[in-house]
Specification:
This is Uridine kinase. GO terms for molecular function: kinase activity. It comes from Exiguobacterium aestuarii. It holds the Pfam family PRK. A hairpin with a 6-residue loop joins β9 and β10. α5 packs across α6. By secondary structure, this protein is of the alpha/beta class. The protein contains six helices and ten strands, in the order αβαβαββαββββααββ. The chain is globular, with a radius of gyration of 17 Å. It has a single domain, classed as Rossmann fold (3-Layer(aba) Sandwich), CATH 3.40.50.300. A six-stranded mixed sheet has the order 2-7-1-8-9-10, with helices on both faces. A two-stranded antiparallel sheet has the order 3-4. It starts with a helix and ends in a 6-residue tail after the last strand. Helix content is 34%, strand content 22%.
């Protein structure tokens, strides 16, 4: 990951307003990269976008129908679907950052609100919702993903140990979530300047901004 952080840091111009987008599916390593990058870059804004994901109770009431390998699937909407995000609100807030307007982030039970300080030139915007934005507002954009088994292992370590979830339920929900990810979210990775595969806990940079020059 140090090489990735080095590349991001090298593209930051000191003193200039800079927006860095980090996205990917759950357990791909987004938060880890964002925290490590904040440690490296110093006093920056870190903007988590999970509050822009539609409430889980509403998503449970939204049944999606989709097909994979000729087999129809019917399952609740997961956060891997673009419609599960309040994108207009997030786009407004990203625009405010770009224009140097400060604001408090959304205050939710699982995440305390923070002040996005317009005096800080660098803002890291991190979360699944970022994948579905127009990335032209950002100076750098990084997308992380893993294979399905790595994602499941990371989810199991968190959801079973910390949240008491049953293994069988986690596996069933993971399989449908992963399928929705492959169908509805994974194609968006191509809009990002940098694509990183973290499968098996090995960092593989598949595409960098240097390749676009």
């Amino acid at each position: 990951m140090e090489r990735l952080i080095d590349e991001i840091e090298q593209r930051v111009r000191p003193g200039q307003r800079t927006l860095i987008a980090i996205s990917g599916h759950g357990a791909a390593g987004k938060s880890t990269l964002a925290e490590r990058l904040r440690e490296r870059l110093g006093d920056v804004n870190l903007f988590h976008t999970d509050p822009y994901i539609t409430d889980s109770q509403l998503r449970k009431q939204t049944l999606l129908t989709y097909e994979h390998d000729g087999i129809p699937h019917h399952y609740k909407m997961t956060a891997c679907h673009p419609s599960a995000h309040h994108l207009l609100s997030l786009e407004r807030d990203v625009r405010m950052i770009r224009e140097g307007i400060g604001f408090y982030t959304i205050d939710v039970p699982y995440l305390e609100r923070t002040w996005i300080d317009p005096e800080k030139p660098i803002t890291i915007v991190e979360g699944m919702s970022v994948a579905f934005l127009d990335l032209t507002s950002f100076d750098q954009s990084i997308y992380l993903y893993t294979d399905g088994e790595t994602e499941f292992r990371r989810r199991a370590n968190r959801d079973i140990q910390e949240r008491g979830m049953e293994l069988d339920y986690l596996r069933a929900s993971h399989d449908e979530r992963r399928l929705q990810y492959e169908l509805f979210m994974h194609p968006y990775r191509h809009h990002f300047q940098t694509i990183v595969n973290t499968s098996g806990d090995i960092i593989q940079i598949e595409k960098t901004a240097h390749e676009e020059r």
